[in-house]
């Protein structure tokens, strides 16, 4: 495991991320905008593994992104080995939050948080989080040990 923090991460996905020559900016490091694409790749892997987009479309809704925050910790270069991790950190009645970490050569390179919701495809209005996703998220919480504080 790359992260030293072994906290519970509901529905976590892990993705090896290749650094491409076109990802590099004039300073020889990965451009900040590339991290947005990598987060999209991680979210697509999350959907592929946990909540297939084609099924969502068939049911008349899709996820939308409402915000992204990225904290850059260290630069990434062309020859670095990059791993991304993304998990569902919060699921409310209408909104979801995913968190992500990007590692470069086993060192934390960036932290990110993204917020979003699901919208009805016919009217583009937010809908409640689908019940099956809520259940899957709650089921993933069951593996947490209970600590009395």
Tell me the total number of β-strands. Answer: 6
Summarize the amount of helix as a percent range: 10-25%
CATH T-level topology: Thiol Ester Dehydrase, Chain A
- The fourth-level CATH homologous superfamily is Hotdog Thioesterase
Features:
149 residues, alpha+beta, 6-stranded antiparallel sheet, 3 helices, globular, disordered N terminus
Question: How would you characterize the overall build of this protein?
Answer:
The protein has one domain (13-141): Hotdog Thioesterase (Thiol Ester Dehydrase, Chain A). By secondary structure, it is an alpha+beta fold. The chain has helices spanning 32-50, 53-58, 131-141, and strands spanning 13-17, 61-72, 82-91, 95-104, 107-120, 126-127. Helices cover 24% and strands 36% of the residues. Strands 1, 2, 3, 4, 5 and 6 form a six-stranded antiparallel β-sheet that branches. Residues 1-6 and 144-149 have low confidence and may be disordered.
Provide a concise account of the structure shown.
With 149 residues, the protein is of the alpha+beta class. The protein is built from three helices and six strands; from the N terminus they run E-H-H-E-E-E-E-E-H. The longest helix is centred in the first third of the chain and has 19 residues.
């Amino acid at each position: 495991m790359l992260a030293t923090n072994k906290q519970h991460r509901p529905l976590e996905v892990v993705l090896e991320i290749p650094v491409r020559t076109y990802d590099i900016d004039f300073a020889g490091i990965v451009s900040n905008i590339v991290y947005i694409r990598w987060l999209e790749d991680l979210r697509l892997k999350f959907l592929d593994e946990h909540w297939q987009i084609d099924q969502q479309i068939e049911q008349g809704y899709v996820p939308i992104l409402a915000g992204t925050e990225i904290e850059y910790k260290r630069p990434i270069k062309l020859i670095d080995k990059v791993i991304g991790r993304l998990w569902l950190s919060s699921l409310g009645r209408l909104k979801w939050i995913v968190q992500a970490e990007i590692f470069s050569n086993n060192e934390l390179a960036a932290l990110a948080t993204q917020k979003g919701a699901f919208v009805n495809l016919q009217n583009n209005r937010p809908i409640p989080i689908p019940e099956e996703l809520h259940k899957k998220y709650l089921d993933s919480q069951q593996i947490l040990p209970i600590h009395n504080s």
